[in-house]
Amino acid sequence: MEPRVTLITLGVRDLERAVAFYEDGLGWPLSGASVEGEVAFFKTGGTVLAFWGREALAEDANIDSEGSRFSSFALAHNVAEKEEVDSVLEEAVSAGATITREAQDVFFGRNGYFADPEGYLWEVAWNPSFPLSEDGTISLPD
Amino acid sequence: MEPRVTLITLGVRDLERAVAFYEDGLGWPLSGASVEGEVAFFKTGGTVLAFWGREALAEDANIDSEGSRFSSFALAHNVAEKEEVDSVLEEAVSAGATITREAQDVFFGRNGYFADPEGYLWEVAWNPSFPLSEDGTISLPD
């Protein structure tokens, strides 16, 4: 698993309020990849900051949203090839991680989740709509 | 405040275990800026992943480490000039953020913390040892 954080997902209780703060309050350009009322993406230098419902994130990661192990955010490690989702998850397990949700095909491509020894969530994702550049960053549609 | 995440600090209960996972398990190169037993830095593509004691982070951000508002991590927004720490914090407050710890001079430069409307912590930091590049990423010493 290469050292790479491509995206940070913050689980929010109130998406509209979060978008209002970052887009209207701070003046950050909202990516066109965002879906109103569902998910918001902001390009933040070398990474992407995503806002998604707290419950939706917990469900996707297969973690109890009310449990103490859910810190309500996830780091994402995007990969260039679909098969890498599975191989990266296997590598993380070999290193001592715990799979919270096995790799599966999803609407955007393929993903899965592991928790590091502290319980921090990583999403391993292949998303051809957010292509991975050679420098390890992802591109968002405008 | 420019849209920029320069560094992600994960507060950990067991630093040695976290470093063992990322450095030994996943094979990530540990930055020479790390201080054994204190803090660990990994360059992760366009951002930096830092591991620091959970209590130390809470204390630095002036947040109760046992309170529900502490999600045990912080996003960092590094700035190029010392005075920008204060002006970015002011801008965040105008947008609806809450200061958790006012800007102050610290051993590495100057920093302060705000919480966004969901309670997520941002550190605004000026750290001349981690210079900010034109592309909005920071450089770590080798």
Average pLDDT across residues of chain A?
96
| Tally of helical runs of chain A | 3
Globular, elongated, flat, extended or rod-shaped: what is the shape of chain A?
A: globular
Greatest interface: A-B, 45 and 45 residues
N-to-C SSE series of chain A? EHEEHEHEEE
**What is the topology, as strand order, of the major beta sheet of chain A?**
2-3-1-4-7-6-5
Work out the radius of gyration of chain A: 15 Å
Provide the β-strand percentage band of chain A.
25-35%
Our measurement of the CA-to-CA distance between the termini of chain A, rounded to an integer number of angstroms, reads 28 Å
Given as residue ranges, the uncertain stretches of chain A (5+ residues, pLDDT < 50) are none
Structural class of chain A: alpha/beta
Outline the biggest β-sheet of chain A: 7 strands, mixed
DSSP summary, beta strand count of chain A: 7
Oligomer: homodimer
Helical content of chain A stands at: 10-25%
